[in-house]
Write a structure and sequence with these properties.
elongated, mainly alpha, 2 strands
Length: about 260
């Protein structure tokens, strides 16, 4: 029974992660599409430094809006993941109480709600991690990188004496997977040739979702007197499972010393 519950939880987390990755990609796509549209308004005119200074303000606005939306999306996903993480123990304990003809009280459900709240707060505040960096700080840090990347594209386009309409097309290329961009794109923008515009934000979302789920599961297990340890299960997919996860596979950790998964 318990294994079936956990498998169902993992399926829910996988769906949640894929949904978040799509949302984040769409946010980047929309931000760059907006910047490309604003560049197109300059038409066939060659780009000038003066124009670039005005455009920098547009990039700053787009960056801030993007950061706010990603923060909102990731916070929501963390809350959902923490809720999923407590479901296993709730179901198991409820089943035990039912067989023992014991009724669960409001306090029982409130305990798990408190776990969810604590986990979300720990990830958002950064207290779950050694560096204590808040979730917002991490996202805004990636926003700074995004802004610099866009500014690099603008500066390179100016050096190439490109018209604004071509800059707009180049920005639209940046959203694509590196392998799907035009071959000439990487020559004009060598520093971004193999870079995915949304990679860091997606990795942050995946990690935060997984940590919220894991931490909530572990803390819920601490509340179950029948749980003595937690077994680590790795996917063991050839070429995709790292040495750390291979080494951990099958190990049973004491409930209070289960390691967090890596990014």
């Amino acid at each position: 029974m318990y294994e079936q519950i956990v498998k169902q939880q993992r399926r829910q987390i996988a769906r949640l992660t894929l949904e978040q990755q799509k949302h984040i990609f769409d946010l980047y796509d929309s931000a760059i599409e907006g910047l490309a549209f604003k560049a197109k308004r300059a038409g066939e005119k060659s780009l000038e430094r003066r124009w670039a200074l005005d455009y920098k303000k547009e990039v700053e606005r787009a960056k801030k809006a993007l950061n706010r939306e990603i923060t909102k999306q990731v916070k929501g996903a963390i809350g959902t993941a923490a809720e999923i993480g407590t479901q296993g123990e709730q179901q198991v304990l409820s089943g035990i109480f039912k067989k023992s003809s014991l009724k669960t009280s409001v306090t029982f459900k409130r305990m798990f709600s408190q776990v969810q709240e604590n986990v979300v707060n720990d990830i958002i505040s950064g207290s779950l991690y050694k560096d204590n960096t808040t979730l917002s700080s991490r996202i805004w840090g990636y926003g700074e990188v995004f802004g610099k990347d866009i500014q690099y594209v603008v500066n390179q386009a100016i050096l190439e004496k490109k018209p604004a309409i071509e800059l707009a097309k180049d920005l639209e290329q940046f959203v694509k997977e590196p392998a799907k961009r035009e071959t000439t794109w990487g020559k004009v923008y060598p520093n971004l040739k193999n870079k995915r515009v949304d990679y860091n934000a997606m990795r942050l979302a995946r990690t935060s979702i997984n940590h919220a789920y894991q931490t909530a599961s572990i803390q819920s297990s601490n509340m179950n007197p029948f749980v003595e340890g937690i077994e680590w299960r790795s996917a063991l997919i050839h070429g995709r499972t790292c040495e750390v996860c291979i080494e951990r596979h099958g190990r049973v950790y004491p409930v209070k010393s289960v390691p967090l998964d890596h990014p």
